Input
Amino acid sequence: MKSPGYLFRSSISMRLSLIVVAFVMLIFLASFSFVFADSRAVVRAEAWGKASQTLQSTVLHIDNTLHEVEVASDNLIKVIEQNLDDPDKMFAYSRQALESNPELTGCSISFEPFYYKDKGRYFSAYSYNDGDSIQTENEGNDQYQYHCMDWYLIPTLLDCPYWIEPFKEESTVGIDVHEIFSSYSRPIHDRTGRVIGAFSLDICLDWFSKTVSAAKPYPHSYAVLLGKGGTYLVHPDSTKLFYETVFTRSLDEPDSLEATDSVMVSLGEAMLAGESGHRNIVLDGESCFVFYRPFKNTGWSVAIVCPERDIYDAYYKMRDAISLISLVGVLCLMLFTWLIVRRSLRPLKLLAASTLSVTDQLFTVKVDDTRRPDEIGQLQHSFHTMQQALGNHIQQLRQQTDKLEQSNEQLAEAYERVREDERMKTAVLHKMTDKMAAPVAAISRLSRTICDSHQALDDAEITAMTAHIQQNASLVTSYLAEMIRAAQEETYSHPVKPNTEHP
Amino acid sequence: MNKCILILTGFLFSVAVRAQRFVFTTAWTAQAQFAGYYVAKEKGFYQREGLDVIIQHPSLNSSAFNRLQTHETDAAMFSMMSAMDFISQGIPLVNIFQDSMNSSNILVSRWNTNPLKLKGKRVAIFNSDPNYQTFIMSRKEGMNYEWVPFTSHINLFLSGAVDATMVVSYNEYFQLLQAGFKLSEKGIYRFSENGYNFQENGVYVGRQFFQTHVEECRKFAAASRKGWEWAAAHPDEALEIVMKYVRHYNSATNRVMQKLMLKEVLRLQVDRDSGKREFRVRRDMVEKASRLMMECGMLKRPVTYNELMGL
Output
């Protein structure tokens, strides 16, 4: 299997398509980075606006309703303070408060111990709505010492109206969320301005809970209402209601405080300080934006927790869609580029094959001579022309080669003949020499004998030897003549012609 | 005949081994302050002593003292000074088990100032508690505080309606932290560190009950001590048991608070001198408490250690 690197190096189409895709992706990345960043900022601004608006409308709605309670209190306190002389009227006033304000669940007009001497230590005209009707009673006794309750103590000691933290008037069996109230309490003054009791209006917490919980700008967002001490008054996790504060988790193993807990502490402090704003925190492993805003008079603060995935949901969808389309587009682009380039370069591939044929001296291989006017077409045409020219040239070369080979063959034949002649000559010479050797030797021997022993030899012997020498000399001469004749015959019978043709 | 004897023997034996019912009322609603008793109950320590202990919690309508007076409970939990006060008033009580060795009382300034510099200022005190230590300290130190009794929780303090409040180190102290209130050493006054270290909660029974149920009282004390020692050795498991009671009685608290409370209560059980968990009433503390209470007019007559212990 060919490696991608090899494919990249060996394939222009692959290389070109990858380069094009890389370049396009670069452009995409640059463009999308800008678009995404811009879109994210727009979405975030929109989300913040949406959350802030929801928060603001929730706070406004609750503040308005709470203000109605405050107005009801303002109206009644005057009546109460003007009729302090008649304690029994207090029961009617407390009842009247509930009749006039259906959102109220209770109303108490309570006095200092023995303010009315004949009423004793406890005198608190208390009316409450039991669901069907309004009940009125004197609620103070040794078991219920209202003088020690927050709703009584705080406004009387501070000498000003005060929204009481939600409370429950029972301590044995713990808290039942549905029976928790909050009260708007204010001091009652006598004609001298001395605080003589407290006037308190109760509202059920369910009302808060429903209103605050309805503040839900996103599908998974939720609202949290914190009391003055950071207590969760409204929270989707009911186990935290009234039992935990925003700081509770930070107290568990404070030495190993997690970053999230520190952020929660910081958030809680900001909320309790009455600040408005937003924070980005991680809750239960999920990044969230928390938008918070205080209530006007109660000291409570409401926060809307919006998971980041909700806020950026549309953005994420758009980003994913664009990313997917881009990815598919880039892949298609890569495929098309590859196909187009491959198609465009196909003639080159054929040319390459043809070139290989040329190296094999196959000049007759057909080369597509397209009518393409582009460089490839020109190249094809040029190659075709070159192929033809090369073919012709090679043809000529072949012809000349053939001729040359023919001449060479003739030369070789002549050479062979010459060599044969030489060999024959040599053989004849050898033969003649051999034939002449004996007479020459005899002549030499006889001559030496005559020279060396001519005095010892008689004339006859010398004559005989001389005759013998002459005989042998004649024999040698005849041999030589025969050789000359043969040589002459050879020369005339096989004349060597010089080759004047050139290949 | 033999069969009848066998049945009769079995019946008598079952009656003999049946656990003795013993009702015990704590000092407050279900919380880690009573972990050792819950543990003793849940781990079967009481049962092994032959006791069927029923743990009850008081309410505003029915305090531990009222229950003891009306014999709704056999034993109840009081602070040592409260018990001494009852005894001096002619209500004979006997301590059968002491789980606190130190004072948990703390005075916290709302304004992060030294509580001893808040002369004549408003100080919130528990309405459900006689606040002996607080009154003694105020008198001895010449503070002349204006007392503001409150029912519970810390909202009165946080509202700024009072200048200081009494808290106990295992409960409201942590509630203040939980409310984001910045506590500093400068703004708090620990009674235990300033010469007012008195033992607090112990389990008391009427003297008459004690005289007729000596063995049951001893068994209760032994099993309770075992419960506390087990809780100290296994705080995580003890916390689980506490949370079971917390959930059952729907106490307005959370696990973190109970964990902190258990840790602090266990710390308060360690005697400063011996460094051990002794579970005993200290004679010197009784004598000192009696003297100071007498000086402050809280006791009609001195109460001795022997009286307190039923000796």
Chain A touches chain B through 42 residues (CB under 8 Å). The first helix of chain A runs from residue 4 to 10. The first strand of chain A starts at residue 104 and ends at 111.
